Amino acid sequence: GAGVSQSPSNKVTEKGKDVELRCDPISGHTALYWYRQRLGQGLEFLIYFQGNSAPDKSGLPSDRFSAERTGESVSTLTIQRTQQEDSAVYLCASSLSFSGEQYFGPGTRLTVT
Amino acid sequence: DAKTTQPNSMESNEEEPVHLPCNHSTISGTDYIHWYRQLPSQGPEYVIHGLTSNVNNRMASLAIAEDRKSSTLILHRATLRDAAVYYCILRDLSGGSNYKLTFGKGTLLTVNP
Predict the structure, then answer these.
(1) In 3-state terms, what secondary structure has residue B81?
(2) Is residue B24 within 8 Å of residue B4, measured between CB atoms?
(3) Residue B89: its chain A contacts at CB < 8 A?
(4) CA of B92: which chain A residue's CA is closest?
(5) Omega into B17 within 30° of 0, i.e. cis?
(6) How far is Cα A54 from Cα A98, in angstroms, rounded to an integer?
(7) What residues contact B29, with CB distance under 8 A and at least 6 apart?
(8) In which band, very low, low, confident or very high, does the pLDDT at B95 lie, cut at 50, 70 and 90?
(9) What phi and psi, each to the nearest 5 degrees, are found at residue B82?
(10) Distance, in angstroms, between B61 CA and closest chain A CA?
(11) Residues A9-49: pLDDT tens digits?
(12) Which of A42, A91, A99 sits opposite B99 (nearest CB)?
């Protein structure tokens, strides 16, 4: 079946602009996660959705970052007034439940110039 | 989360078996041993997990020591596509908040043709 998809695959934006990153999870997966991975670094947790509620937003780095999820499907991560330190690969993952194996999308590579 | 220790890198030849070790001497009774891998320029990929008994799936086998202080991921016949960074992590699935995946440096596996 279809895996997790993310769009766009690459995004180059100017400092100060807003960006929206999209994630389509595997159908039927109630849990959805956003992570960030800077070049050569490990995963940095951003936010967790169970259904369309977000019980854990603790990883969002600042109030410039927000995310929402429609039902148990699409999620968007929005970064307002982008800064150069926001440059990274943003990864989305989904799982059947919070304790299940997480299936990752290919990521969106964000470059802020 | 309890810590894991893995070699920084390993090398193998194509079509030969690969044994990737992981030490987790402070593992607790409710920690599951999970393995993920990350191919170049891709999102992480779930490989296998287990608690006490050895596990097999289509991708790999997981051998868990009797005292659970170490484990070994076994790729039975390495292919060039198996070249990746392999992460061994512990997840306590008894609680309600252990959905955040935290990767260490992992083992960079190089497969020679």
Answers:
(1) helix
(2) yes
(3) none
(4) A99
(5) no
(6) 12
(7) none
(8) low
(9) -85, -5
(10) 16
(11) 999 999 999 999 999 999 999 999 999 999 888 889 999 99
(12) A99
- Contact at 8 Å (CB) between A111 and A21? no
From CA A97, how far away is CA A91, in angstroms rounded?
18
Which candidate, A69, A68, A72, A71, places its Cα nearest to that of A27?
A72
Helix (H) or strand (E) holding B47: strand B45-50
Q: What angle do CA A83, A85, A90 make, to 5 degrees?
A: 100
Count other C-beta atoms under 10 Å from residue A23's C-beta.
Answer: 27
Q: Are B45 and B36 in contact, with CB atoms under 8 Å apart?
A: yes
Residue B82 has pLDDT above 80, yes or no: yes
Q: Which of B43, B98, B99 sits opposite A91 (nearest CB)?
A: B43
A54 at interface of B, judged by CB pairs closer than 8 A = no
Q: State yes or no: pLDDT of B1 exceeds 80.
A: no
